[in-house]
Design a protein that fits this description.
The structure holds three protein chains of three kinds. Chain A is an alpha/beta fold. Helices cover 37% and strands 24% of the residues of chain A. Chain A starts with 5 loop residues before the first strand and ends with a helix. The two termini of chain C are 15 Å apart. The chains are: A alpha/beta, B mainly alpha, C mainly alpha.
Chain lengths: 236, 336, 444
């Protein structure tokens, strides 16, 4: 099998103390949506942060397009085309929506107008609120700003840490629709989700983590159909 | 009843000095608030930064005067100011390199940075005294008045005079230019926006590829410009002495906190709030009141709320009230 | 951070290292005595003892609880004020001139503030409350001024060349020491109520302010302690040198040991002060050590090390901080009273924040924050340096400029040597903070 576009391969490590991840493997291909689910404390967010270089690995590797990026800082990974949307504090609250997008494109020296147009097309509400301070927006709109900011670097991989935490079910569906749209443009999406069932429905690939290790890995639909997964992780 | 004369007396003794002092405090508070919002500590060396920046300007002014350069009716110090800013910026960048950078690298608690700024304060204070001594220095030259009290009386026929000193006019004009430049820089330029982003959310700024070292360096340069300008204007207006500048620390921080620590607009508003309170509380209102009341009710005392010796108490009281009532300040600073 | 490992290292290195450093500092003082003079050495020792107590007070605030207060100068000055108020003789005619008016005025001022605070806490927030509180304060202020001002004028007009104040109670001067502590504690309570529980920087700025204001009051309220006209010849807890020289027994004793009676008298007097100060220092250290190792001290340090988790465990952090802030300030106030007693006069013009606030901070940081003995070591070492840097700087400048032609630069450099102190202290503070942040004697 060919090497996936982005792979965190057999990652083991933690935040200095005991290991949280145990030989955990996460991979995603262009245009795919990969979802990491699992019980609380399973190391879902940690796995994602490891892929993004926010903790150092004791063993294992992260490769992007076959290139080993294990030693790169998160900032350097941004330059390589990875974008990360943290779970909280993911916008500049005191700045306008448009300035948030501009800051997302900080590393780019070319014209960012087209990308900004694309973001506004994807999230039309942001166009209406472009001159408003991002901190004044609703929860769902803030998440759109956060995703929009990340898209401004024209990334090849978009990583989302629980994008639907704290938003209403309607907004969640709306956000998932947008995420599918983003994936259709050829961007790989890697996301951690609490709402396992809904997330697996849109997932091309699902990773069920337990205690920092891969428990089940399959397509989203297959996992949803798997009685073991249903029983243990999806509440029957 | 003589409303016109009362108004003129008010303008002359309260409003104009208050505006000039407020502008000087606002510039000082802007520098302190900027350092706080980017570097996340209260810089106790800020007063002494203003002092040493002013010392550079004074030395350059003397040099220019020695070479026969003058700025016509305006103080020569204004010509020296840009060079003074450059020197101060170099000094602050060097300080950052030698002192503060290490604590950022090890992610020290803010209070450790404050402590380090105490050390820097000592050194800058020592260097200032070393270079220029401890005596009061007046370094203003050019025309002394834009309008003298006598001219005003002559042209209006009023009993009260209204004098506007050149240094007061210069303070206001320079402060407006400086604040305008600062806001243009913060709102419109890429670097300025990146500073605001860094101040707002450091982690996200890093994720967006904003270079923290660059942001910090630019912050010191801007702080140097603001501190040197504030110090020079204050010195032109009221004379230079090292200890006074150290004492300015209290009204400057009071202004920054009253406005909301970390908020540039707040720093300006706070500067004027503090300055006007100080001037109004320590001004003897006898003259103004005498004009307003009929002769039979003329006041016998000075009608002064507090003696000028307690002017620091005014900024302090306002500070305490703000801390008690709204700790985030008038313009919602970054944190409480 | 591997806290346990560091603590054990410090404990192992502790006693030996402490003794070595203490011996080194002692050697500095002995050398000063031998090469300069014993009176000078004792003078430095006495101020070093007082500085140690000040450092102890700051260490209680910073080392135990992590409170960053820069109001030391104000509390020292309050201690000084207490000496005048307690021990100096009542000024003849002072009380009759306007004593009651002043007391009444102050009582009215206090009542106004109390009424405003009560109104603010009892009434529901809103415009009504704001208006009423403001009205109480404004009316109260003018009433206060109406009663207070004429009384003050009358008192200050009473023989202004020598008095012009109310004078003190004429009580024994040693009583002023605990009173100084109480005055400082009261001021600390007021300021702590307002500034604690907010960001740490706010306490720093508020205390910086209160110190300036206390000093302004001291300088300008002549009726209290004659302002910048100073109060001199305060009573002493020890005999005067001249009296000793006139006592036959003392002169005989001095001569029998082969001492010059004049030198001997000043040395004996200074030694008496040394004894008094040492007793206070040791008592305070014993109390501080006991407090530090009591459950209360452990809780303080737990709060300092992790405020959030201490708060989550139900500790009232702000209240504890207020306690420790008051205690530390009281210790500083005691030291301030001791200093004024040693000087025999109160000179408000001589208080400067660089000398009293920030220098004491250097002592604490250099000595080792959190360690009481570190504060003592820092107090002795830094005070010795503070005194000695100037002559050393002078000498250095003379050496440096010896090759220069006489002229402006040479004169300027030699004159500037006086400012070496600030520079040196700043450099020491930065070096210790950077390379030995735990100080010479780390916390155990």
């Amino acid at each position: 099998m060919a090497e996936p576009f982005l792979i965190g391969d057999a990652m083991t490590g933690g935040y200095g103390g005991a290991d949280i991840l145990h030989s955990c493997t996460i991979a995603v291909n262009p245009g795919e949506i990969a979802v990491i689910v699992g019980p609380n404390g399973a190391g879902k967010s940690t796995a994602m942060k490891a892929v993004f270089g926010m903790l150092s690995l004791r063993s294992g590797a992260v490769r992007l397009k076959g290139e080993d990026i294990t030693a790169l800082t998160p900032q350097a990974r941004v330059a390589k085309g990875m974008a990360f949307v943290p779970q909280t504090a993911n916008i500049f609250t005191s700045m306008t929506v448009e300035e948030n997008l501009e800051m997302g494109a900080f590393l780019r020296r070319d014209d960012i107008k087209t990308t900004m147009e694309q973001v506004y097309t994807l999230f039309p509400i942001l166009r209406d609120k472009r001159y408003q301070a991002a901190g004044e927006l609703s929860g769902g709109q803030r998440q759109q700003v956060a995703v929009g900011r990340a898209l401004m670097t024209q990334p090849s991989v978009l990583m989302l840490d629980e994008p639907t935490a704290g938003v209403s079910p309607i907004v969640m569906d709306e956000l998932f629709d947008r995420i599918i749209e983003v994936a259709r443009t050829g961007i790989s999406i890697l996301m951690v989700e609490q709402n396992a069932r809904q997330a697996l429905e849109i997932a091309d690939k699902g990773y069920v983590l337990v205690q920092g290790a891969n428990r089940f890995t399959d397509t989203g639909q297959a996992l949803l159909a798997d009685p073991d997964v249903r029983k243990s992780f999806l509440g029957g | 009843m003589d409303i016109l004369n009362a108004l003129v007396a008010f303008l002359n003794f309260v409003f104009i000095p208050g505006v000039a002092y407020g502008a000087q405090l606002a510039l000082g508070a802007l520098g302190a608030t900027l350092i706080y919002s980017i570097l996340r500590f209260s810089n106790f060396a800020h007063g002494d930064t203003m002092a040493i920046g002013t010392v550079f300007v004074i030395l350059l002014t003397w040099g220019m005067q020695g070479m026969g350069i003058s700025f016509g009716p305006l103080p020569t110090a204004l010509l020296a100011l840009p060079f003074g800013i450059v020197l101060t910026a170099i000094l602050l960048l060097a300080t950052d390199r030698v002192v503060y950078r290490y604590y950022r690298r090890v992610k020290a608690a803010p209070v450790i940075l404050v402590m380090a700024s105490l050390g820097v304060m000592f050194i800058l204070n020592g260097v200032t005294r070393f270079i220029i001594g401890t005596s009061d220095i007046s370094f203003t030259d050019g025309e002394r008045f834009i309008m003298t009290a006598g001219d005003f009386r002559e042209s209006t026929g009023l009993a009260e005079g209204l004098a506007i000193r050149t240094t007061q006019g210069v303070t206001l004009v320079v402060a407006i230019i400086a604040v305008g430049l600062l806001f243009w820089f913060l709102q419109k330029t890429r670097t300025g926006k990146s500073m605001r982003a860094f101040s707002d959310n450091e982690d996200l700024a890093l994720l967006s590829g904003i270079n923290p070292d660059r942001v910090v360096a630019v912050t010191w340069i801007v702080a140097a410009a603001l501190a040197t300008t504030a110090g020079t204007l204050y010195g032109l207006d009221k004379g230079f002495s090292p200890f006074t500048y150290f004492q300015l620390l209290l009204p400057i921080f009071a202004a920054a906190i009253v406005g909301g620590l970390g908020s540039p607009i707040g720093a300006i508003a706070g500067g004027f709030v503090i300055a006007f309170s100080e001037v109004m509380v320590t001004y003897a209102w006898k003259k103004v009141v005498t004009y307003l009341l009929p002769d039979s009710m003329a006041p016998s005392g000075l009608i002064q709320l507090m003696s000028t010796d307690y002017k620091f108490a005014v900024s302090f009281l306002i500070l305490i009230i703000v801390l008690l009532v709204m700790p985030t300040g008038l313009f919602k600073g970054k944190s409480i | 951070m591997s806290g346990a490992q560091m603590t054990s290292q410090a404990a192992a290195a502790g006693p030996a290292r402490g003794l070595l450093l203490a011996a080194f500092v002692a050697a500095l003082f002995i050398a000063t005595g031998m090469f300069q003079s014993w009176t000078l050495a004792l003078l430095i020792v006495n101020m070093a003892l007082i500085s140690s107590i000040m450092a102890l007070g700051v260490n209680i605030q910073w080392g135990y609880a992590g409170l960053f207060s820069v109001g030391t100068m104000g509390f020292v000055a309050l201690g000084g004020l207490s000496v005048v108020l307690v021990s100096s003789a009542p000024a003849p005619g002072g009380w009759s001139a306007g004593g009651t008016g002043i007391v009444l005025g102050l009582a009215m001022g206090a009542a106004t503030i109390a009424a405003a605070v009560m109104a603010a806490s009892k009434m529901a927030p809103g415009r009504r409350r704001t208006v009423i509180v403001a009205a109480i304060l404004i009316i109260g202020f003018f009433l206060f001024r109406a009663v207070f001002d004429p009384a003050v004028q009358a008192v200050e007009a009473n023989n202004p060349a020598t008095h012009g104040n109310l004078g003190g109670l004429g009580l024994p001067v040693l009583l002023a020491w605990p009173v100084g502590g109480l005055l400082a504690a009261a001021a600390a309570w007021a300021i702590g109520k307002a500034a604690l529980g907010l960001r740490s920087d706010y306490l720093a700025i508020a205390t910086l302010g209160i110190a300036e204001i206390i000093l302004a009051v001291l300088k300008n309220e002549d009726w209290m302690a004659r302002g910048v006209k100073n109060v001199i010849s305060l009573p002493r807890p020890v005999p005067y040198e001249v009296d000793l020289q006139r006592t036959q027994g003392f002169v005989d004793w001095a001569l029998s040991w082969g001492f010059d009676p004049v030198t001997a008298s000043s040395i004996v007097v200074r030694l008496m002060y040394t004894g008094l100060f040492a007793v206070v220092l040791l008592a305070l250290i014993a109390l501080s050590q006991a407090a530090l190792h009591s459950p209360w001290g452990r809780m303080m340090r737990a709060i300092r090390d992790n405020e959030v988790s201490a708060e989550a465990m139900g500790k009232d952090v702000t209240r504890r901080h207020l306690q420790v802030f008051i205690l530390g300030s009281a210790v500083i106030g005691i030291a301030g009273a001791m200093m004024t007693t040693l000087d025999g006069q109160l000179t408000p013009g001589s208080y400067s924040p660089l000398r009293f606030t920030f220098l004491v901070w250097v002592m604490v940081i250099v000595g080792g924050s959190g360690n009481n003995w570190g504060s003592v070591l820092g107090g002795f070492l830094i005070w010795w340096l503070w005194v000695m840097v100037e002559p050393i700087g002078n000498w250095l400048m003379v050496v440096i400029t010896s090759g220069m032609a006489d002229g402006w630069l040479k004169g300027h450099l030699i004159n500037s040597a006086a400012h070496m102190r600030l520079l040196t202290m700043g450099v020491i503070l930065l070096l210790v903070l950077r390379f030995a942040p735990k100080g010479l004697l780390p916390e155990r």
